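Homework help board

Subject: predicted structure for assignment chain

Our instructor gave us this sequence and asked us to write out the predicted structure in token form, then describe one feature. I got the tokens but I'm not sure how to describe them. Can anyone check?
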Amino acid sequence: MKNIRTHHSPSPLLEAAIASGALACAVTAAVAAAAGARASSSAVAPINAISHVVYGPSAARVRTIDASHTALGLAINFGASTFWAGIYEAAFGRAAERGDVPRALAGAAAVAALAYVTDYHVVPKRLTPGWEARMPLRSLAVIYGALAICLPLRGLARGATLRRRT
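My token output:
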């Protein structure tokens, strides 16, 4: 007789991607907000600019918290962060959990670079993050650097915890 599961849980890869993606979303949004505050006196404008995917270029001009622009911008950032975290976790998550720090960091840098190239050189302009509308281009390097730093943290922390238990 088959074992019937009554509880459906996401796969370990999906759980890892969501955890890493949530952290990456929070940190990249915070970095974008700081850059936006410096560049245009509006910390929320870069988050709102992400919603240009739906609202067009006018989204970048919204300088205050706005349920339709800010919530959508955060949701899109979370989705994108989780997508890139999923790629990282599939390719390098085990290395991070094993404590292979050089491979984990190199993988994170590679995935963040791939994210930048995809976001700004592959997809149509309408699908870019839109941050460049509210901050200097050099700030993008800081945002994608923050993404690279966040990606291996879940696996490195989990691996360290597991190693301490044994």
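Reply (TA_rk): Your tokens look well-formed. For the description, you could write something like this. The chain has seven helices and no strands. That's the kind of observation they're looking for.
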